[in-house]
Amino acid sequence: MCQEISGDVVELAVIDVMGLDSQTLNHLWECSEVHKFNRVEVCLHLLQTLITKALDDGVLKIPPPILSRVYQTISRGFVNLLNTKKITDTKFPYPFAQIIAVFLLVHIFLTPALISASVPHRFLAPVFTFLAVFGMFSLNFISMELENPFGLDANDLPLEHFQQEMNDCLLMLLHPNTDLVAEMDPSGKLDFKVLYDEIHPSDPSEAQDAKRSRRIWSVRELAKVANETEEERAARAESEATIAVVPRAEDKEVSVPASTATVTAVAVSAAETAAQGPLKAEDVQAMLTKSIHEFNQCIKQWTGSLQTQMADANKGTVGLLGDVEAAAKLMSQEAGNNNIFRFSARTP
User: Fold this and answer.
1) Is 258 within a domain?
2) Could you tell me which of 146, 150, 154, 162 has the C-alpha nearest to residue 84?
3) Segment 152-187, tens digit of pLDDT
4) Are residues 63 and 130 in the same domain?
5) DSSP per residue over 233-285, as a string?
6) How many distinct structural domains can be found in the chain?
7) Which of 87, 8, 72 is nearest to 40 (CA)?
8) Structure pTM?
9) Contact partners, residue 247, CB within 8 Å, separation at least 6
10) Based on the domain organization, do 212 and 169 belong to the same domain?
């Protein structure tokens, strides 16, 4: 497609073009060299024919209404190709280019005369003349460069890069694991609250610890997990399953006994893990890090509940003081009104 747009100026790499049979290669060569057909239209028709044959043979078990989207996407790509060819096929008007060239020649001779007559300085006059003439010619050359962006010039579009990206997309479809169905690991976390607290720590000072414990891994860590054997993965899942999960209650339900029970559960789970057998240093470190993180989360929630209760108590105290002040003002106003009434009653 890129070669068709650029007019065979650029020769791009195609994935195993000789892998086609001789009849197809002869057909492509005849359509391109003998009949001068549009190569993109020929390949598009071959692709549509292949899809239709695969549907009739039962290779593509797709309902026709859904498969029609494939034809629509292909036709939309061809429409975009035609819109792109308008840029290369529609040339700049020749009379317009002639008049621009004539006026540039006039500009070369008139500008020095006018500037030398208006600027008496012998050093500034050549500078002003050069800037004016150079600017007009630069704009003309830039417009000529941008007239056809499909080529090998420095300012043209990177057609080779586009073709390489297309080849990479096609190779991705041929990868053995392209149709792999992703599944969850037994040790994966599905609790929204737990994952949210690990990714968004409330205390900025603990951001580094949360970063180590959260389930956003680097490429190296992901490669380590991918290279694990089934026995190692099962052992890691079993070691993580023995760690007690701290219950996250609401702020109003958090209390000191709940925290004590959590610590006891962690201790019991640690004792059970120790009774099962010796663990690796990495597993022990992971268990310890996770337990400390869960304990910190519980302390944060308990502290947050205390702060909320203190804030509510302060609000109640402020409201009570406001009511007392309002009552005092009302009492003072009533006392003043009684005094005025008594004074007016005594006066004759």
Assistant:
1) yes
2) 150
3) 888 888 888 988 999 999 999 999 998 899 888 888
4) yes
5) HHHHHHHHHTSPPPP---GGG--HHHHHHHHHHHHHHHHHHHHH----HHHHH
6) 2
7) 8
8) 0.52
9) 258, 262
10) no
